[in-house]
Amino acid sequence: MPLSSSTLVRHFYSSFTRDLIGRFTLPLVTGVETKSTYKCEECPDEPVTTETETSYQVSCFIAQDVKYMYTAMRKGMEGTVKKKSAVLGRDADFKKTSPLSRLPGYLTVQFVRFSVGVAPDSGETVARKILKDVKYTMKLDMYEFCTTELQQKLSPMRTKFKEQEEKKMAQKAKLIAEGKLLGPKLAGAAAIAKKDENVEYEPFQFEDDVGSNNSGYYELAAVLTHKGRSSSSGPTSWVALKNGEWAKLDETRLLRTEDQY
């Protein structure tokens, strides 16, 4: 079933309440901060330095040994870089670690699939695409990638998530005992899953950081993919709608799809 672009826009903004739309800006809800630490591997006397960097995505560099998104994210947050050593007076190898010191309300994760190389026949510089299947999940937990300070701030809300999950498990066990759980679906699911209009929701952000994430948990909301081997090929995107449906958008059409994507 075709969808209009205005429908997608309305769906996106429906995740914000009216009073929040005016206050939020893109940098606030997508900005990621990392606290990078540099330690010289060639000179123990070199002081360890730190710096805070801001970006709008977490990059996953795809390699032959990468099968899962989590692996690529770990690799991207640790590595060796060349940097001027004040003690040695020259460039030296520094170990760089970059845990996250701020999580945004909406997190963008980029799979870096293109690398620049030289074509053997023409000698021209070309962008090569790494064609490799990398698995990712519908839910993402960023806790392990954060600084110790941020992990401590995330803990209270994560405890509430755990308590809520335990309540759901207890409810499920009770329904099983009463014979009301039939396979993956609940008997009388409409009554059990009926939305309570008076329910109160916990804040998703820290009080002193508008647009942030205060739990480290995320759910997949959209996917942008690249078709073809050339860097100039067109993209295809999917946007999550309600009830497990997705909207598929390529260069020519906008369609509803099944949740298989």
From TrEMBL:
<dbReference type="GO" id="GO:0004843">
    <property type="term" value="F:cysteine-type deubiquitinase activity"/>
</dbReference>
<dbReference type="GO" id="GO:0016579">
    <property type="term" value="P:protein deubiquitination"/>
</dbReference>
<dbReference type="GO" id="GO:0070628">
    <property type="term" value="F:proteasome binding"/>
</dbReference>
<dbReference type="InterPro" id="IPR038765">
    <property type="entry name" value="Papain-like_cys_pep_sf"/>
</dbReference>
<dbReference type="GO" id="GO:0043161">
    <property type="term" value="P:proteasome-mediated ubiquitin-dependent protein catabolic process"/>
</dbReference>
<protein>
    <recommendedName>
        <fullName>ubiquitinyl hydrolase 1</fullName>
        <ecNumber>3.4.19.12</ecNumber>
    </recommendedName>
</protein>
<keyword id="KW-0788">Thiol protease</keyword>
<keyword id="KW-0645">Protease</keyword>
<dbReference type="InterPro" id="IPR028889">
    <property type="entry name" value="USP"/>
</dbReference>
<feature type="domain" description="USP">
    <location>
        <begin position="1"/>
        <end position="261"/>
    </location>
</feature>
<dbReference type="InterPro" id="IPR001394">
    <property type="entry name" value="Peptidase_C19_UCH"/>
</dbReference>
<keyword id="KW-0833">Ubl conjugation pathway</keyword>
<dbReference type="Pfam" id="PF00443">
    <property type="entry name" value="UCH"/>
</dbReference>
<keyword id="KW-0378">Hydrolase</keyword>
<dbReference type="InterPro" id="IPR044635">
    <property type="entry name" value="UBP14-like"/>
</dbReference>
<dbReference type="GO" id="GO:0061136">
    <property type="term" value="P:regulation of proteasomal protein catabolic process"/>
</dbReference>
